[in-house]
Amino acid sequence: SYFPAFLEPRRLAEKALAAVVQEAYVQGVSTRAVDDLVKAMGMTGISRSQVSRLCEEIDGKVKAFLERPLEGDWPYLWIDATYVKVRQNGRIVSVAVIVAVAVNGDGRREVLGMDIGPSEAETFWTAFLRKLARRGLRGVKLVVSDAHEGLKTAVAKVLHASWQRCRVHFMRNVLAHAGKSGRRVVAAFIGTAFVQDDAEAARAQWRQVADQLRPKLPKLAGLMDEAEPDVLAFMSFPK
Q1: How far is C-alpha 94 from the chain's CA centre?
Q2: DSSP calls for 76-135
Q3: Pairwise pLDDT comparison (138 vs 92), residue with the higher score
Q4: Distance, first Cα to last Cα, the chain
Q5: What is the mean pLDDT of the chain?
Q6: Which pTM value belongs to this model?
Q7: Residue range 186-206: average pLDDT?
Q8: Is the pLDDT of residue 3 over 70?
Q9: What is the pLDDT of residues 56-87, one digit of tens each?
C-alpha cells in the first residue's frame, strides 16, 4: 500500500517514543519520571493519560498471552511464587506473583500462566491451576515447586500428578544448617545423589551422604531423611 515517504521518519519516531514509554512503564517508572524522560529527549512532555493510552497495547498483549489456549501435553510443570510491593488504594502492600512454566513432549519450555493474589493460600493455587486446566493444560506427570502445603494440596486436587520438591528451595533450606564455611562442600556432597544413573542408586547415595553428615550436622541429616522421597521424585521419570 502507498505511504508517503516524508511521513515515515515521523512514524518511526513515534514508535520509538512509544517503545521508551512502554519500557519505562514495565520497569515501574513513575508517570512524573516518564514525563521528565520525554522532556530530556527534546519533547514537550507527556501526561498521565497519554502514558496510559500508550501502555494499553501492552495490557492487551499480556491479556492475550495469559489467556491463550494450551495445546498438546505438558508433562513437566514448574510453579513458583515471589512477593512484590504494589500500590493499592493509596497504600503499598505485598502481593504474591505466581508463575507456571512447563515443558512439552518436544522439550520446548514455555511460560504457561501468571497471576497475582494477596497470598499463597490453597484457594489461590487451586483457582490458578483450574484456570490453566480450562485453557487446555493436560498430560501433566510431574509438578516441581517448593514445599508449600497449599500448593501441594492444589496439585493433587486439580492435576492428579506426582510432586517434586524444588531442589533449589530444598538446598537453600538445608544449607542454612551447614554453617557458612561448610556450605559449598555440603552442597557438592548432596549433589552427588542427583547425578546417579537411576532412582535406586540415587536413594542409596542420598542415605549414605545423610549418614556421613549426621554426626556433625544432625539437623541437616534429619531434613535429608524427611525430604528424600520428595527431592528425588524426578529420578523415577525419563531423563
Answers
A1: 17
A2: EEEEEEEEEEEEETTEEEEEEEEEEEEE-TTS-EEEEEEEEESS--HHHHHHHHHHHHHT
A3: 138
A4: 52
A5: 86
A6: 0.79
A7: 96
A8: no
A9: 777 888 899 999 999 999 999 999 999 988 87
DSSP string, the chain: ----GGGHHHHHHHHHHHHHHHHHHHTT--HHHHHHHHHHTTS----HHHHHHHHHHHHHHHHHHHTPPP-S---EEEEEEEEEEEEETTEEEEEEEEEEEEE-TTS-EEEEEEEEESS--HHHHHHHHHHHHHTT-----EEEE---HHHHHHHHHHT--EEEE-HHHHHHHHGGGS-GGGHHHHHHHHHTTTT-SSHHHHHHHHHHHHHHHTTT-HHHHHHHHHHHHHHTGGGGS--
495445546: which residue's cell? 71
In angstroms and rounded to an integer, the radius of gyration of the C-alpha atoms of the chain is 24
